[in-house]
Amino acid sequence: MAGKRPLRNWLKRIIGREMPVSPGDSLQYPDLDPRPFQSITPEIYIKDRINDQLRFYDTKAVYYKRWYLSMRAATVIGGAIVPVLVNLNLNPLALNLWFSVWHINVVKVLTTLISLMVVLLVSLESVYHFKEQWRNYRSTGEMLKKEYYLFVSGKGRYAGKDPDIAFKLFVEKCETAIDVENASTLQVMTTVSDVKRDHVT
What we know:
By secondary structure, the chain is mainly α. It is built from five helices and two strands; from the N terminus they run H-H-E-E-H-H-H.
């Protein structure tokens, strides 16, 4: 154990920050504060749990939406350009090299490249499910916001309930939504892994 510390200190001086501690050195949970049983108030739960999840879902939704719309736009544009190129009647381009002259059919080359791009983009969408991921993260984030406003306003399923019972119901609804989202994401990622493995084999 002592032999690792000089190397870690040297790397710390090189990169300017502390190196991650190996699992054998210590076990730490920097994001989880030790708290007594039933010590979390609604304010703390909303601040530490709901706000953190909303930031995560919003970031992921924007990321996957950008990828999905960009790939769909490129696919539509590419699919529209290919028939136009096929109907063009252009003379081959002569490329003079010092050892020979190459005649290149520009239309054929462009058609092939654009068609390949379209096929690749469609295949990537079917593998990574950008649309499903975007909708999943966005719908979960909006559901958490809805539960938050119903809870703090005392409306809907929280109307007329004791504060402790309402908070219990609020936590259960939010955690269930988070669990469903995690299961959905895991299902998509498992599908991606299976597709990759099938291609390799």
